[in-house]
Every structure is written in structure tokens, then in C-alpha cells.
Amino acid sequence: MTYELFKEVVAEKILGYMSPDLQNCKVNIHSVDKVNQKLDGLNIVPNEERGEKVTPTIYLNKMYEHYLDCNDLEKVLMDTAKSMEEGFRGAPDTRQMLDFDQAKDNIIMQLVNTEQNRGLLANLPHREFQDLSIIYRWLVNKDGEGIASTMVNEGLAERLGMDEGQLFQVAVENTKRLMPPTIKTMNEVMRDMFRSDGMPGEIADMMIGEMPEDRTMYVISNERGINGAASMLYEDGLHSLAEKLGTDLYIMPSSVHEVIAVSTGMGEPNELAQMVNEINMDQVSLDERLSNQVYHYDKDLRKLSLATDTPNKRLDCIVAEPAQIYDSKNPTR
Known about the structure:
Helices cover 35% and strands 24% of the residues. It contains eleven helices and 13 strands. The longest helix has 18 residues, at 73-90.
């Protein structure tokens, strides 16, 4: 079954797999701009008034992948209906969840690839930095299980009464406070992973060993490990690391969640960029890719700039036209 036919069949049949009280809903399929990709979202919308509860969105693209894997349409519809019902009944009332009076204290920033997200950025307040763009998210909930946030589009920014400059100003402070930046050696990250899986610390230390500082990779993220690549915008952390190593740094984007910093003695930037590109294509899901370029931090000038300009500007194997490179001396403009 082709994807287009699959969409039609799902739209026609999905309500038949819902519980009786939800079978009179409307089915709404619409295009959704997500980071790095455009997806087809499916919502069920009640005909009767139910307050301002959030209706869950299921992405048909993911459903179709599930269908191709199992080749069982009924199973896909049953699984989807179950997920939607659980999400619908557990959805909070937005009037209780969204506190607009406190919003300015909870605006944070995220880095995304500019070329890959032209469509998304057209409706978002943002500012460009090198080949990336800073976008803003409203952190509406943070607990031990994770975070809940929503992208700030033009409509939401207007409702909040904030322009891009104001969003940037509060996001710089809020992100550092709510999602504190971290810089750890790769060994420390691996040790934490082993220990979280129950491995005794002594055994983890024996397995990992140690590396000289100037040959070590450093993972820059935040305490949550979510959208942590934005932590590289805090120059004080880069400067402290560069001073510690006594060299400039190359910054390799691992994903939207983290970047890897190494001493410039670790290799040539174009070779590092080739490695980044291969890892992006083979190991990082499209929605989490950040860039195929490598950045250079000059510890004396205290400046972060592009070290490479490879032709693969997009992240989905489509070669784009060369993008304009912005002046890193003034990344906030």
C-alpha cells in the first residue's frame, strides 16, 4: 500500500477502533513542521465542547513505518487508537498547564540547522548564528521524568507580547538557569552510562581507562541532556576548557542534544567534518541532526566561528546551495 493510500485508509477507519464515546470525533490530518522535517499529523477533534484540553497528535509517517515493518494494517490501527485514547484521556487542560504570566521566566533556546529548517523558521522568531538558528521554546513542565515544551511561533510570541529581541534576552538567562550547561569528558559520560546500568564504579573505571587531556573528547550539553547543543553558545565554558587544554578548540555537532569539543591538535577540520557527516547519516535520526560542519573556537579572540564550509548544508542527503555565513563577532544580530 502506498503512503498516500495509507493516509486515506487511516482517515476513514481510525474512528472505528476508538472507544464509543470518541467515535463521533472529527479526523483532522494536517502538515506539521518539525525540526529538520515536515510530517503529516493526525488529530481527533471532539464535536462537543471539552474545555481547552490538548488533543494528541499521531504522525502518519511513523504509522506507515510501523505498517511496513509488520504488514498488518489492523494491528497498526489498533495500536494507534490505543495510543491516542491514552494520550487524549491523560491530556491536561491547557488553562491549568499554561501560565502566561510566568512564561517569560520559562523561555529557553534551542539550536537547529538553518538550511534544513527554512520552512519551519518562516513562522518562528529566531536569529541566525553561523549555519544554525536559535529558536525559542516555552518550557511548560520539568520533572524527574523529563520536560514538556512547545516551540514559540509568531502567534504565540504575539500572545506573550514579546518580540525576538526580548525572547533572546530572557532565553539566554533562563536556559542557563533551567538547563545548566555541562562539560564532561567522554570517559565521564561513558562511566555515568555504565553506572546507570548497574555496573560497579570500579569495574567501569577499569573498562574505560584514562586519556591524556589533549587527546580527550569533551561532551558539551546540559544537565538534562535535552537540546543541549545550545550550551556551546555560552562562551565562558568554551574559554575555560580551551585554557585548560592550552589550545583552540574544534567543535563537532553530535546532535541537537550535544556537541563534542576537542583540541585543535586532534585533526584537520575537513577530516573531522567528514566524520561528522558519516555519523549523522548512519547513526543519528534525522530529527536530531544539527549540522555537518565543524566549528572553531579561538581562545585568544574568544570567538566561535565556522571551521568548514562543506557542500552538504542540508541534513537529509539533499545538497543545498551554499548558505550565507554570518559574522560570528556579532552572533546576536
